[in-house]
Every structure is written in C-alpha cells, then in structure tokens.
Amino acid sequence: MLVRREHSRLELEQKLQLKAFDELDIVNTVDLLVEQDYQSNERFAQEFIQMRFNQGKGPIKIAGELRQRGIEHFDLSVFDWFALARSIRENKYGVEALLDYNEQAKQKRFLQSRGFNFEQINQSFINE
C-alpha cells in the first residue's frame, strides 16, 4: 500500500482491518513500519497538504480531511491562502470587480465550499 502513495497510520490500520487481519498483528506491523520510517504521519501530512493546495483547496477543508485521516498536528502556515483564494476566484470567474451582490455571493459560496475562511474570501475581492 505504501508503494503507491503515503498513507496515514489510521488509513493503514483501517485498510488492514478491512482485510480481516488480527488487531494485534496490525498494530505490531504498523509500529514496525513507523520504526523503520516506511510510514510517517508527518511525511503524509506534508504531501497531502501540498497535493490539496495544488488542487485549490483551502485550509479549512484540508484541516478537516487531515483530521479524518488521524492527523492532529500539521502546519498550514507556509502557504499563501489569500493568493490561492484570489487565483481560484479569478480563474473561475474572471478578474473584473463585481458590483452585482448575487454574483458576488455566489462566488463567495464557491470559495467557502473550497475550504477558505471569510477573511481569505473577502480579501480575494479586493483590488490590488
């Protein structure tokens, strides 16, 4: 499983449980993988965050997905979420400033569904 992509510890354990392996064997095996550095939650988190950032996902969505995968400690501060929100909005809707309230609300809902917070969304509408 680790040959194709990184997995979190929780993901590995869940996949092995689905294959009906003994719980003690699963824990011992995953412990050994961690000890030998074949599995690393930190490495998984870094790759996962970079992948989702490149897909245009915001920090709220990424943080939620990481928690679902059993990752509680991660650093999202190295990315410029304001620039990403602006870029995503401009790529989808264009660069022009909006005067229509309904259209602006639609675009804000779109960015919110991508996982951006209100500050990042509002900044994406401010002209540089």
Number of domains: 2
Rg result: 19 Å
The count of helical stretches stands at 7
Helix and strand run: HHHHHHH
Low-confidence runs: none
pLDDT averaged residue by residue: 93
Beta-strand portion reads under 5%
Q: Helix/strand-derived class?
A: mainly alpha
Helix content: 55-70%
Distance between the terminal alpha carbons, to the nearest Å? 46 Å
Strand segment count: 0
> Overall 3D geometry?
elongated
How is the main sheet built?
A: none
Protein name: Regulatory protein RecX
Family: Belongs to the RecX family.
Subcellular location: Cytoplasm
InterPro entries: RecX_HTH_2nd (IPR053924), RecX_HTH_3rd (IPR053925), Regulatory_RecX (IPR003783), WH-like_DNA-bd_sf (IPR036388)
Question: Tags for this entry?
Answer:
2 domains, mainly alpha, WH-like_DNA-bd_sf, 7 helices, cytoplasm, 128 residues, Arc Repressor Mutant, subunit A, 62% helix, Regulatory_RecX, elongated, Regulatory protein RecX
Task: Explain what you see.
Belongs to the RecX family. Its main location: cytoplasm. InterPro entries: RecX_HTH_2nd (IPR053924), RecX_HTH_3rd (IPR053925), Regulatory_RecX (IPR003783), WH-like_DNA-bd_sf (IPR036388). Keywords: Cytoplasm. One of its GO terms (cellular component) is cytoplasm. With 128 residues, this protein is mainly α. It has 2 domains: 60 residues, no CATH class; 43 residues, Orthogonal Bundle (Arc Repressor Mutant, subunit A). Helix content is 62%, strand content 0%. It contains 7 helices and no strands. Helix 1 packs antiparallel against helix 2. The longest helix has 14 residues. The protein is elongated, with a radius of gyration of 19 Å.
